[in-house]
Amino acid sequence: MPRSSKSKIKKTSPPPPGYDKIAPTIFKYKQKLKSATTNTSTTPNTTSTAPGTKPTSLWPIYKITHDVTRYVHDLYARSKISDELYTWLTLQDYVDASLISKWNKRGYEKLCCTQCINAGGAGRGGGTCICRVPKVELLKRGQDDKVDVECVTCGCRGCASSD
Ligand SMILES: [Zn+2]
Ligand SMILES: [Zn+2]
């Protein structure tokens, strides 16, 4: 994807032209993210995990980050936003630029979150998360029971490109 390198956009730059068109949507995502963050950030000193508390409290954050990043990525892919605006958006905290760079790679077009491909991540002793394994592959291996798996990191139910 050709991208102009002439722009010297910084994170703190004022929003480039065109931002006002997408601002309401971005704002909605930001609000969602904000409430998800406040809902999930428990006091660090609380050692006792309340019974019934799922270790999945970060899912909403991953989900929203994924959604807003996908939104920005799609806008750019459909040439709805300028290079300038796109660059500016990827510098903002609510957009996961590393996720976008993965989506641009073959086989990672549907990647749910970068945690799922980080070695040592996902609390599974490293390696790639099961959600990255194509469903057909799981079936082939006779792991039918795993086909309906839910990723512990982000709640993804499968993000292999062939799914
Ligand atoms: Zn996934
Ligand atoms: Zn994930």
**Which segments are poorly predicted (pLDDT under 50) over 5 or more consecutive residues?**
43-50
- Share of helix, binned: 40-55%
Total domains? 2
Q: Tell me the span between the first and last alpha carbons.
A: 25 Å
Beta-strand residue fraction: under 5%
Order of helices and strands: HHHHHH
Mass-distribution shape: globular
User: Number of helix segments?
Assistant: 6
Structural class estimated from helices and strands: mainly alpha
User: In angstroms, what is the radius of gyration?
Assistant: 18 Å
Small molecules (ligands, ions, cofactors) in the structure? zinc ion
Query: Main sheet, how many strands, which sense, barrel?
Result: none
**How many beta strands in the DSSP annotation?**
0
Mean pLDDT: 83
Please, could you describe this protein's structure?
The protein folds into 2 domains: about 15-40 and about 55-105, no CATH class; about 110-163, no CATH class. It is about 40% helix and about 0% strand. The protein contains 6 helices and no strands. Residues about 45-50 have low confidence and may be disordered. Bound molecules: zinc ion (2 copies). One zinc ion binds near residues 112, 113, 116 and 151.
Give a summary of the structure in a few sentences.
By secondary structure, the protein is mainly alpha-helical. Helix content is 40%, strand content 0%.
